[in-house]
Amino acid sequence: VQTIGILGGGQLGRMLSVAASRLGLRCHIYEPGAAPAGDVAHAVTNASYEDEAALRAFAESVDVITYEFENVPTSALDLLESIRPIRPNRRALAVSQDRLTEKTFLNEIGLATAPFADVPTEGDLGGAIDRIGRPSILKTRRMGYDGKGQVRVGDGPAEWTGAPSVLEGFVDFSAEISVIVARGADGQVAAFDPGLNVHREGILRTTTVPCGLAGAVTTDAVLIAARIVSALDYIGVMGVELFVTPRGLIVNEIAPRVHNSGHWTQAGCAVDQFEQHIRAVAGLPLGDGKRYADVVMENLIGDDLGRVPDLLRAPNTQVHLYGKGAPRPGRKMGHVNRITG
Ligand code: ATP
Ligand code: MG
Ligand code: MG
């Protein structure tokens, strides 16, 4: 493999391409928007997932295709896959694109999820609430991220999301953690240390390692993540989000790509999640992701960007800016990795 195609030109695609460049590999980025985040070479911009000629030319210009965005339309994937391999594979994409298939798959391989019910239309909501109870959370099956497309169902009348959804029982968790796990083309599995995640308004704010939980919990989390990637015959990095409860770990969701809660690995490990993903999809051996520092990763969201002058002067602090232009409320503009020990 010499050239890797990346579907999506956001910050994840950009950090993947930087990691690839360090290994002497080239990246071509396929970005539907007007510009990729920051300054990335070889980007096809304003590129539609309906444009067969553009998709074909892109696929032919690379050796393998990966993605930083899991909601690529099926028709585009079919065309791309007829020309070059897609890693992680189509099954991983299909399972994680849709919260209903995702939770069904997780239960099938013996993992616990929140109790859930299919809510195809608004008319099905009442029956679903009768089965799952309150409080609960209604989530669109597809396309949601950063808490978008979600409605809390409390005591009052329930709002409709406007699209086919799942209703999830509310999990009374004591903590949220995630495992960034990798599986190589040779089937080898490696996981980074689980991180403790804090969300505000549905958006990840901080990830802290070590997560401070008992070894039995973190070991269980890693074993769960390994079970998921093995069951999917997965190649690449996956983010697995988990709720910690008194009755054990519950899988919230999986992301078939590098994950925001894995950004701490840039400051904490010799090989970070981006390089690990590139190694896997390029068919190279996985690297050593052992953690050698304590790190707090903080997202810079919207106006947090104003803190950058101070952050640039802060000790033990690695600043990452995505080059997205003017900040907007709720938009991830960058992140900082603070080495705390
Ligand atoms: P991401 O940006 O991580 O993809 P998302 O939009 O897919 O987010 P979820 O991860 O489903 O959203 O939910 C966002 C947050 O809302 C969770 O991290 C958790 O804090 C809370 N949450 C989601 N589902 C539940 C649940 N069933 N019970 C309790 N809290 C929940
Ligand atoms: Mg999600
Ligand atoms: Mg999530």
Automatic annotation (TrEMBL):
Task: List the keywords (alphabetical).
Answer: ATP-binding, Ligase, Nucleotide-binding, Purine biosynthesis
Record note on quaternary structure = Homodimer.
The molecular function GO annotations come to: 5-(carboxyamino)imidazole ribonucleotide synthase activity
Q: Note the Pfam families from the entry.
A: ATP-grasp, PurK_C, RS_preATP-grasp-like
Q: What is this protein called?
A: N5-carboxyaminoimidazole ribonucleotide synthase
Q: Which PROSITE patterns match?
A: ATP_GRASP (PS50975)
Q: What does this protein do?
A: Catalyzes the ATP-dependent conversion of 5-aminoimidazole ribonucleotide (AIR) and HCO(3)(-) to N5-carboxyaminoimidazole ribonucleotide (N5-CAIR). Catalyzes the ATP-dependent conversion of 5-aminoimidazole ribonucleotide (AIR) and HCO(3)- to N5-carboxyaminoimidazole ribonucleotide (N5-CAIR).
The EC designation for this entry is 6.3.4.18
Regarding protein family, the annotation reads: Belongs to the PurK/PurT family.
Q: Which HAMAP family match?
A: PurK (MF_01928)
InterPro entries (alphabetical) = ATP-grasp (IPR011761), ATP-grasp_carboxylate-amine (IPR003135), ATP_grasp_subdomain_1 (IPR013815), PreATP-grasp_dom_sf (IPR016185), PurK (IPR005875), PurK_C (IPR040686), PurT/PurK_preATP-grasp (IPR054350), Rudment_hybrid_motif (IPR011054)
| Pathway as given in its UniProt record | Purine metabolism; IMP biosynthesis via de novo pathway; 5-amino-1-(5-phospho-D-ribosyl)imidazole-4-carboxylate from 5-amino-1-(5-phospho-D-ribosyl)imidazole (N5-CAIR route): step 1/2
